[in-house]
Amino acid sequence: MALLELDGLPFHVQRLGPQDGGPAAATAVLLHGLLTDSLASFYFTLAPALAASGVEVLMYDQRGHGRSGRPPTGYRLEQFVDDAGVLLDRLEMTGPVHLVGNSFGGTVAFGLAARRPAQVRSILVIESEPASGAWAAKLDGILRQAETELVKRSTLAWVAAKRGAHTARLARSAGRLLATTSLARDIPASRLPSEAELRTIRCPVLAVYGSESDLADQAAWLDELLPDCRSTFVPGREHSVLIEAPDTVRELALSWLREHGTELRGPAARREGSVR
Amino acid sequence: MTSSAPTEDLHPPTEQEVLAEITAMLAAVLDEYGLDEAEVTMESRFTEDLDLESIDLVTLAGRLQQRWGERVNFAEFLAGLELDEIIGLTVGRLVGHVVDRLRTAGRS
Questions:
Q1: Do B53 and A43 touch (CB under 8 A)?
Q2: What are the backbone angles phi and psi of residue A8, rounded to the nearest 5°?
Q3: Are A178 and A70 in contact (CB under 8 A)?
Q4: Which architecture does CATH list for A2-130+192-270?
Q5: Which residue of B has its CA nearest to A173?
Q6: What stretches of chain B show up as alpha helix (H) in DSSP?
Q7: If you ran DSSP here, which 8-state letter would residue A117 be given?
Q8: First to last CA, chain A
């Protein structure tokens, strides 16, 4: 397991090179979501398909999550964005990279693109939104509820019955994260970008939503706000699009990279033209 | 890490030997929560029975890679599975994959 220390905190980093051993056709940085998420959500879904297509993949566990360090405090959005920037610097990934963010990982991606526009080639977000006052208020509610619920046996039993043992296992870990850190109070206290700041994100953005997700309602607002953003909806899905519809996400990501000048190799290259 | 490699190349490890090695890897992966090694059998499911979460399987993948490298090709094995199947995976299925690949590698 690769642990990289950044400003005294260990980060669990996984890199997959192009599977054929050739030069990288592009670099993709995959950013996972809050609480129950980790780089595993990408490691078992999108990452192998990208590597098989000649793309260099960087994944890491965000602070407090997965196998990365869990400081008691320091969970404002800008600190997650700092981590992404420091990691890119440390790994000397100076060339423009494609960011892929799941849920809160997309919020981090928008933050990084606003801060380092020259370093971001494109953004693909799955069930995400940029930080805003509405976002902070919503997260505050969700995190307060999670903090009290996820430590209860009754809640975890309900999750196990409804969503299976693995989701219940993740929920229990999330309960521990909330109980031992200031994350629930830090996220709503994040520095929020103004709409003017968000409009400086000029790179192409693809926003993927589950058609049944509450978040899908914001698609028109985001398309309008950002200079180069379009939305796509995965039918019948709610928030867990990456985990529940990995094939769809793989196809969307590969055609997105191809659209933005990546010469894919391997099976994806042979399918070229069939995915439009 | 590689001290047992010479004999292993002459005699591909048995199912029991691979199970013992993977059990030891699981104990290392789970050391912060603890694992009762006696409970690991071929039928154990990683999630339901051994209480692994998906990030633990990433760590296990790293250890498999370190131990057996390209011969076992865990990435390729996983790439053929959906996340649901990976989560429902039994120890026996992984042991079977490792034994098969080492046997094939030994012949080539």
A1: no
A2: 85, -5
A3: no
A4: 3-Layer(aba) Sandwich (3.40)
A5: B53
A6: 5-10, 15-29, 54-68, 74-79, 83-87, 91-107
A7: G
A8: 38
From CA A264, how far away is CA A128, in angstroms rounded?
Answer: 26
Domains defined for chain B, CATH in brackets = 12-107 (1.10.1200.10)
pLDDT higher than threshold 70 for residue A22: yes
Amino acid in the structure at residue A163: R
B47 inside 8 A of chain A by CB = yes
Nearest CA in chain A to B48: A165
- pLDDT tops 80 at residue A255: yes
* H or E stretch covering A59: strand A55-60
* The pLDDT of residue A129: 96
Helix (H) or strand (E) holding A231: strand A229-234
**Percentage of chain B modeled with pLDDT above 90:** 26
Give the pair of three-digit tokens for residue A73: 């405090």
Is A37 within 8 Å of chain B by CB? no
Q: What is the tens place of the pLDDT at every residue in A74-125?
A: 999 999 999 999 999 999 998 899 999 999 999 999 999 999 999 999 999 9
Question: What does the domain layout of chain A look like in residue ranges?
Answer: 2-130+192-270
